[in-house]
Amino acid sequence: MEDWLIDDERLSIGRKSVLPGEGFFRPDSVEEEQAEREAAETLSDAEVVVVADGDADGLACTALIRTARGAGALLPAGPHEIREALAWVAEYAPRDADLYVCDLCPDHGSDVEHLDAVIDRVADVRWFDHHQWDDDLAAAVEDAGVDLVVGDSEEVCTADVAVAELDHEFPERFVDLAAATRDHDLWIREDERSDDLADFSHWAEPEEYVATVTEHGADLPPEVEDMLAERRVEKEALIEKAIERAELREVGPWTVGVTYGRCSQNEVAEALREQGADAAVIVKPSGPASLRGTDSFERCHEVAAQVNGGGHPKAAGCKPDIYDDMLDYAHHWSTRGAVAKQAIIDAFRRLEVEDDVEAADDAAEAED
What we know:
Blueprint: H1 13-18, H2 28-43, E1 48-52, H3 56-69, E2 73-76, H4 82-92, E3 98-102, H5 115-121, E4 124-129, H6 135-143, E5 147-150, H7 158-165, H8 172-185, H9 193-203, H10 206-216, H11 222-244, E6 247-251, E7 254-260, H12 265-274, E8 279-283, E9 289-292, H13 300-305, E10 309-311, E11 315-318, H14 326-334, H15 338-367
Parallel strand pairs: 1-2, 1-3, 3-4, 4-5, 7-8
Antiparallel strand pairs: 6-7, 8-9, 9-11, 10-11
């Protein structure tokens, strides 16, 4: 395949909106081999290891741990990469290292199948999070010997947990960083800096982000603000495309806004909320989808759990298991995510059925 076919720079906004980025078209095997080589190098002589989500919350935790411990080799890992990150720690980390896992919640037992090997390998394991954990998975992680602390997902972000749990007197800028991170992560949207942090974490390399917020906290320097302003021109255009193709669907008692596109999901979800949506579904060209709720719908994590995902009551993610080959992806792009949208809408409908059954059972018990 010619390189120019996947070159983002030559695509119009319209085409860029419906196709995944260049990285999607690189074989996972190639990406995984490179990632493992980099992980082995990163871990080779690390005294402190941080496995963290590569978003603003996970990277803020990394900055806090490095400040408190004076070190912290970072392995960025998404929710679906927990298993391989733990496998690499078990294989390559020094035996006297301390491990912190931050802002990551396992969806299945297979995500933590290497945890016993990690415990045997390193000196200590602490896990900070704020997502909705399955009780059995939480018990299994704790029984393995992990110091697990999960904050209230409606009140705190993982950076808040790290500030509270790390034995260190943090300068005020780090407490402020955690608060600004929480504003975005919990979708409070009262601190205008929180969107800057989210965008910067998305566009910058993880180490650049960690170094910047370690020095400046949530008040990003002028050169970063200039970069964000430049990048947001395209960002806003992609958001507008996703909003234009959105539709509102009535699913039981809820109005669900559904759309498709490569875009920033929070801003799109906010626009759909303003149009009357109780919940928003944004399906991405690469296959996953983001779910966002409102005060009238705080069950995003329940919907996501039905379609290979999880998260928070008002913010969750998933990837429907509907892609068997590249023809399925071609259909996904050409239909603007039709099958994925339907799979998620069906999950909303199952919630309604479960509610009806529960209400009927309650009524029957009351009659008895």
